[in-house]
Amino acid sequence: MDKCPLPELLILLCCFRVLSGSFSDRVDQENEVIFVKINIVRRFIQCRMCHLQFPGEKCSRGRGLCTATTEEACTVARMFDKDGALWLTFMGCLKNCADVKNIKWSVYSVSFRCCRSYDLCNENL
Q1: Closest listed residue to residue 78, CA positions, set 66, 95, 91
Q2: CA 106, CA 92: separation in Å to the nearest integer?
């Protein structure tokens, strides 16, 4: 029970107030529209997942979907060899993701791209 129920409680109370007739004493003018809109913030997005994909091949390990929470983002990481040729790609959900280019790791360089704009946004990065 690590989630605070306060925001849901406030939304629920607002709904009860509207449904119980809080606008019943209001005189509507001609052409006036009364409505209540509750903005729903999407907290989770689906990301493409693949733990191991070599250039020109399909995903060979860990293929599927993952769900990124509010602290996570969809990511694509690419590893390049010392000549700059793509050697390996992996995709998934990553906590505290940041766009990074050409991090040196042994004889490889690694680049990360992150997104949260829509479901499966990391397929086309």
Answers
A1: 91
A2: 23
What is the full per-residue pLDDT of the chain (125 aa) written as tens digits?
444 443 453 343 343 333 334 334 444 444 444 444 455 555 789 999 999 999 999 999 999 999 999 999 999 999 999 999 999 999 999 999 999 999 999 999 999 999 999 999 999 88
In this structure, the number of other CB atoms found within 10 A of the CB of residue 82 comes to 11
Alpha-carbon distance of 34 to 25, in angstroms, equals: 13
Q: What is the CATH number of the domain that holds 103?
A: 2.10.60.10
User: Around 40, how many Cα atoms within 13 Å sit in the side-chain half-sphere?
Assistant: 3
77: containing domain? 45-124
Cα separation, 100 vs 95, whole angstroms = 14
Cα distance between residue 115 and residue 45, in whole Å: 10
